[in-house]
C-alpha cells in the first residue's frame, strides 16, 4: 500500500522520466538534427553516402553520438528515446511522401548527374559532386568496361552509385528524365527518332 501511495504521488512526467516540455524539446531537437544532416549530405554530394572508408565509419559513429546527445539532452531516458524514435520515423514518413512529388524529390535528393559522355569526362560535374576521376575509373572497371570507347554515358545516381550506359544500344531518353547534364550526351547515343538510332 505504501508503494502504491508513493507511485500515485508521482507526476506523469516523473513516471515517464521526462516532462511535457522535455518531450517537446526532444521532438524539436530530433527534427533539427535530422534536417541539418540532410542539408549537410546535400551540400557534400551524393557520393559521400556511397563510399564508406574507415574514417567515414568513424565520422558516422561520432555524428551518431553527437546527434543522440543533442536530441536526448544531458540525461537520456527510455521515454526520451521512444519520443526521439517516433519523431525520427514520423519525419522519414513525411519525407517519403514528399519524394513522390518531383519537386519534393528534387529538394530532398541530389539529382542524377551525367559525369561522362562518350570519352569526355566532365571534371566540373565531378568536382561539384566531390568525386575523383579515380572513383570514376573504378566504377568503369566494376562495370566491366575495358576501354572508354565502350561508354555512351556515366551517370552519378542520387544514392551515390554510378550507372554505366554502354554504346551499341540507343539510350531511351526517358531513362535520363530529371538527369542533370543529359543534353551533354551526343544525340547519336540516344534512341530519339529525330536523330536516328546511330549508336
From TrEMBL:
GO cellular component assignments: plasma membrane
Domain YetF C-terminal: 106-169
Residue runs in coiled coils: none
Source organism of this protein record: Trueperella pecoris
Predominant cellular place of this UniProt entry's protein: membrane
Keywords on record: Cell membrane, Membrane, Transmembrane, Transmembrane helix
Subcellular localization, as worded in the UniProt entry: Cell membrane
InterPro entries, A to Z: DUF421 (IPR007353), UPF0702_alpha/beta_dom_sf (IPR023090)
Topology class, membrane: Multi-pass membrane protein
Family statement drawn from the similarity comment of this UniProt entry: Belongs to the UPF0702 family.
Bilayer-spanning residue ranges: 20-41, 53-72, 78-98
Protein name per the record: DUF421 domain-containing protein
Amino acid at each position: 500500500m505504501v508503494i502504491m501511495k508513493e507511485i500515485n504521488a508521482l507526476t506523469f512526467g516523473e513516471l515517464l522520466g521526462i516532462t511535457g516540455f522535455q518531450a517537446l524539446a526532444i521532438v524539436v531537437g530530433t527534427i533539427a538534427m535530422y534536417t541539418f544532416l540532410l542539408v549537410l549530405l546535400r551540400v557534400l554530394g551524393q557520393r559521400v553516402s556511397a563510399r564508406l572508408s574507415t574514417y567515414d565509419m568513424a565520422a558516422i559513429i561520432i555524428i551518431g553520438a553527437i546527434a543522440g546527445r543533442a536530441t536526448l539532452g544531458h540525461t537520456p531516458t527510455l521515454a526520451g528515446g521512444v519520443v526521439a524514435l517516433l519523431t525520427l520515423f514520423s519525419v522519414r514518413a513525411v519525407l517519403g511522401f514528399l519524394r513522390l512529388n518531383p519537386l519534393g524529390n528534387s529538394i530532398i535528393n541530389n539529382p542524377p548527374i551525367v559525369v561522362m559522355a562518350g570519352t569526355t569526362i566532365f571534371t566540373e560535374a565531378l568536382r561539384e559532386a566531390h568525386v575523383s576521376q579515380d572513383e570514376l575509373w573504378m566504377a568503369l572497371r566494376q562495370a566491366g568496361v575495358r576501354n572508354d570507347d565502350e561508354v555512351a554515358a556515366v551517370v552519378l545516381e542520387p544514392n551515390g552509385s554510378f550507372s554505366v550506359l554502354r554504346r551499341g544500344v540507343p539510350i531511351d531518353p526517358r531513362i535520363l528524365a530529371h538527369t542533370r547534364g543529359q543534353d551533354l550526351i551526343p544525340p547519336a547515343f540516344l534512341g530519339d527518332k529525330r536523330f536516328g538510332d546511330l549508336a
